[in-house]
Specification:
Blueprint: E1 2-8, E2 22-27, E3 30-34, H1 40-46, E4 54-58, H2 64-67, H3 70-79, E5 86-91, H4 94-101, E6 112-117, E7 121-126, E8 129-135, E9 143-151, H5 157-162, H6 170-173, E10 178-181, E11 184-187, E12 196-204, H7 211-216, E13 222-226, H8 235-241, H9 246-256, E14 261-264, H10 277-281, E15 287-288, E16 294-298
Length: about 300
């Protein structure tokens, strides 16, 4: 199961009822956080979520509404007893950006480990998930993320016997990668069939529509895209600032064959996003406008 939460859904600046956009994904007892704007730790607490077991923090880009909450989050994690290293991934300049923000959080009881994204696509892994970072089109280097919780194949007794795997480790190998019995190591590939379809979430914000988004949103169980503007008259503004319209996000969801679309990163000039929701639903009916704290538990397909 993959738990997905949008603690905040706002873009540019927070409103009294809307924190800045971020996304928390939890699986196998660990989590991945995408972006950390002002107030993120408050939004997380309001949503009933913790980052004490955060395995990876991903930045889409370095505009303030996506990174300015980092110092407070790091300090709180330290005060709550974290000692394990924290991995952070983001575009070129990552360590310099974090160092600048850490002027007010210079001492932490845990190390920071950096993964700087430089290629058009980069592969990561965290919290049991396989993650693809892909470059998009904003006013500075910016990445979207495709996160997949894989699912192993079914146990195949015939295959296990043919590979000479003793029954004593059959159960173990359905849960773990390897097992040793009487001095011999066995792997789960020796007892399992082909991998089954996992759970995929694609998250992308602050960009114009580009083919890479559709590519990495293919057949996503949940697609989370920015809906900066809903009013059709805002299209020139969206193009100028390299953001997306509700209808543009809906077209991507339709073309990618996604199961559901969540819009996020609403402009502060958009106090009631649902006003323009029907425009998106005409293109992709499974479009919703989440409020802060929206959560879903995604299960493996049957």
């Amino acid at each position: 199961m993959l738990d997905v939460t949008l603690p905040g859904t706002g873009g540019t600046m927070p409103l009294k009822n809307r924190w800045l956009t971020c996304c928390l994904l939890r699986a196998e007892g660990k989590s991945v956080l995408i972006d950390c704007g002002e107030g993120t730790q408050i939004a997380l607490k309001s949503a009933g979520r913790s980052v004490q077991r955060l395995d990876l923090l991903c930045f889409t880009h370095y505009h303030a509404d996506h990174i300015s909450g980092l110092p407070g989050l790091l300090l709180s994690m330290g005060l709550e007893g974290r000692t394990a290293p924290l991995r952070i991934a983001g575009p070129v300049g990552l360590e310099n950006v974090v160092d600048g923000l850490r002027v007010i959080a210079p001492e932490l009881p845990f190390e920071l480990e950096y993964t700087e994204l430089t290629a058009e696509t980069e592969m990561l892994s965290a919290a049991g998930m396989e993650i693809t970072a892909f470059a998009v089109n904003h006013t500075m280097p910016c990445y979207g993320y495709r996160l997949t919780l894989p699912r192993a194949g079914k146990f195949d007794a015939k295959k296990a016997r043919e590979n000479g795997v003793p029954m004593q480790v059959w159960g173990w190998l359905q849960k773990k990668e390897t097992a040793v019995y009487q001095g011999t190591e066995y792997t789960r590939e020796q007892v399992l069939g082909a991998p089954r379809r996992g759970i995929t979430v694609t998250y992308c914000t602050d960009t114009r529509p580009v083919p890479a988004i559709t590519q990495y949103a293919q057949n996503a169980d949940l697609l989370i895209l920015e809906g900066m503007y809903g009013d059709p008259e805002k299209i020139a503004k969206a193009v100028e600032t390299r953001h997306m319209m509700f209808t543009e996000a809906a077209k991507i969801a339709r073309d990618a064959g996604a199961k559901e679309l969540w819009l996020t990163h609403y402009s502060p000039s958009l106090p009631d996003p649902e006003t323009y929701l029907p425009l998106a639903q005409e293109i992709f009916p499974e479009t919703v406008c989440p409020e802060d704290g929206r959560t879903v538990d995604l299960s493996y397909p049957e």
